[in-house]
Amino acid sequence: EILSFLAGSVLRGETSLEALLERVRETFGMESVALLERAGDVDPWTCAGSVGPRSPKRPEDADVDMPVGDHMALALSGRVLPASDRRVLAAFAAQAAVVLDRQRLQHEADQAKELAEGNRIRTALLAAVSHDLRTPLAAIKAAVSSLRSDDVAWSEEDQAELLEAIEEGADRLDHLVGNLLDMSRLQTGTVTPLIREIDLDEVVPMALGGVPEGSADLDIPETLPMVAVDPGLLERAVANLVENAVKYSPTDEPVLVSASAMANRVEVRVVDRGPGVPDEAKDRIFAPFQRYGDAPRGAGVGLGLAVARGFAEAMGGTLNAEDTPGGGLTMVLTVRAVGSLPVLATATAERQAS
Question: How many of the other CB atoms lie within 10 Å of CB of 222?
Fold first, then answer.
């Protein structure tokens, strides 16, 4: 039965090293068990894993030791085993070595994945800097050079237009750099929400300041309960959602920003009539440096939605994408209503697990 357990659980990768050593300790009635290893014959022993108090530091310190190859041993303390148990112990020792190798390979694979993701983000960041940040800089430089030129006598109207181009370029730079800094804070875990009770209509209207007048309609009922949020993070999250929606919406179809109460939460919906996003891409668009399909000119570096979701989850809320009935995309930002328990983290965990 024991050998069958070892063969099945270890081959399926269901057993951790600590769990296997604990099974050894229980099976043989030992006080402690340790898997020891060393690099060479004269190198000191190190402990790869152990269970129980005062585990052996060297095979010669143990009541029972079972070699595994030339430089590894399973060391047990508590009592001396009869010879009849050593065959089973040898099987345990061999499987402990297999589990240790598997754990190390998995760790190396995880590290490689992290490095690959880091390289992808750095590559995307370089692309963003080379294009999305240089484009507004080029517009600013061209406008300034024109204003400083002695070869042309600019009219007041022309000067105002050039100054407006400089201001627009500076605003784009400020927005792009702000999202880069926000993403950096989210990835390093340095976002600390200051949660307080507030009415949505004190925050959401301010988030519409970055889009042209008339490009977004607001519908926030006065009867909504107060919400427990960080006002600054909520404003930035909604602003990113609205700006993204406006970019992809037809010019004659204003984005609708509405809110409603649902049980113990309040939902803020940002509804556009743009091209929409297929179901298989709805979660992917929230990854950093992602822009689905043909992004409009000046659509940014693809951080707005990632930052919005990060801020929503930092406040204990959620952010998901749905189809707009009749065509388009609806962003649903959910926050906790005042007086309710903070249960939204459960929904976030379920979404991440899926």
Answer: 7
Number of DSSP helices (H) and strands (E) in the chain, helices first? 8, 11
Question: What is d(CA 318, CA 213) in angstroms, rounded to the nearest whole number?
Answer: 28
Place of tokens 């693809």: 302
Distance CA 70, CA 321 (A): 57
3-state secondary structure of 322: strand
Whose CA is closest to 243, among 231, 255, 230?
A: 255
Read off the pLDDT of each residue in 121-131 and give the average, rounded to a whole number: 63
Domain of 321 in residue numbering reads as 198-292+299-353
pTM recorded for the entire structure: 0.59
In eight-state DSSP terms, residue 273 is -
Q: Which of 28, 19, 34 is closest to 87 using CA atoms?
A: 28
Total domains in the chain come to 2
b/e per residue 192-211 (b: at least 16 CB within 10 A):
ebebeebebeebbeebbeeb
The Cα–Cα gap between 52 and 71 comes to 23
pLDDT value of position 348 = 44
Task: Assess whether 105 and 202 both reside in one domain.
Answer: no
| Domain co-membership, 206 together with 105 | no
Determine how many CB atoms are found less than 10 A away from the CB of residue 190.
8
CATH code assigned at 46: 3.30.450.40
**Position 55 in a domain:** yes
Whether 198 and 337 have beta carbons less than 8 Å apart is answered as no
